[in-house]
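Sequence in, structure out.
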Amino acid sequence: MKKKELKKMTKSQALKDIDKLKKDLFNFRFKKINSQITDSAKIKSTKKNIARLKTIIEDKSNA
């Protein structure tokens, strides 16, 4: 996700994306345990995207 895309999001959209990314992260971890994941970098990028979205939400609630 790009910063421009994130800044345009509303709080509710960001929350929906966080829920989706958390589900994806759970599935990636499950696949990693079963040695089914092909690209382990997805886990790290998903965690970063969740953190970015949480930061955007925090900034919007403080503003």
